[in-house]
Write a structure and sequence with these properties.
Rossmann fold; eight-stranded mixed β-sheet; alpha/beta
């Protein structure tokens, strides 16, 4: 039989162990997480990084916005970006411009972070502006005064202004196609003629080159219009080389187009 004294000692020990457990448990529970504190205090806002622009190249800017169509953006981007892998030519720096620092979402759902915000950043001189088609180039985008004014400003210094598909509507809204011949997406030619009755809009061609303006039907034919500009700048062999790198059978003579001689 266990004595009364022994029972008392056991109870006292049990109470001491329980008290210590509670103390350590509370201490652990309320102790600040040093790792979490470090992470929170070490996070700093990352400064914006602009692309490296190699001197003595053409600066080619792509005007993008929500609803930009992938092909009209990526086709000329692919062609022009590959010029830097060719020797003995004045290659191209390619970059994007938009009215935001946040990503834009293409019509097909691809998220793209613009290189420059034309509303607040210092934009380098643009030699070639590319206007891919976007979902609202037939309506609300044409009411974007800041965007239209940006296009007008670029036009004062650019060597070429190019559009793909309904990007031609932006050039037209900016008043840049007056006295010029142009084209656009085949299904929207009648609308463009109706909206801009003073303009000369052509059917049955994939692209038109008139002065500093090159307008194209868009879609997969954006490759052809871009290869044409490269052939104009660099010659047929370079254009064929660029096309071959993208497995495109390039022959300008087989592409329905119109060149307006000045």
């Amino acid at each position: 039989m266990i004595s009364t004294n022994r029972i008392q000692r056991l109870l006292i020990n049990l109470l001491m162990i329980t008290s210590l457990s509670l103390v350590f448990s509370c201490t652990t529970q309320h102790k600040p997480n040093s790792n979490t504190t470090t992470v929170k205090t070490s996070i700093k806002e990352k400064s914006k990084e602009f692309p490296e622009l190699v001197p003595n190249r053409y600066n080619v800017a792509f005007l993008i916005m929500d609803g930009t169509y992938n092909t009209e953006f990526t086709a000329p981007f692919d062609i022009f970006q590959h010029t830097k892998y060719r020797e003995n030519i004045k290659a191209m720096n390619v970059f994007t411009v938009a009215n935001t620092d946040n990503y834009i979402t293409s019509f097909e759902g691809v998220k793209i972070i613009p290189d420059y915000n034309y509303l607040k950043d210092s934009i380098p001189k643009i030699d070639i502006l590319v206007i891919p088609s976007a979902e609202h180039h037939l309506d609300t985008d044409l009411e974007d005064i800041a965007m239209i004014n940006f296009v007008k400003k670029v036009d004062t210094q650019a060597t070429f202004m190019t559009s793909h598909c309904d990007g031609a509507f932006v050039l037209a809204k900016a008043g840049l196609l007056t006295d010029k011949v142009a084209t656009t997406f085949p299904g929207d030619i009648d609308k463009m003629r109706n909206d801009f009755p003073e303009l000369d809009i052509r059917k049955e061609v994939l692209f038109v080159h008139d002065g500093k303006y090159i307008t194209s039907a868009g879609g997969a034919k954006s490759f052809e219009a871009s290869l044409y500009l490269c052939e104009f700048l660099y010659g047929a062999e370079i254009a064929k080389s660029l096309a071959g790198g993208l497995v495109i059978d390039w022959n300008l003579d087989k592409v329905p187009h119109l060149i307006i001689e000045e």
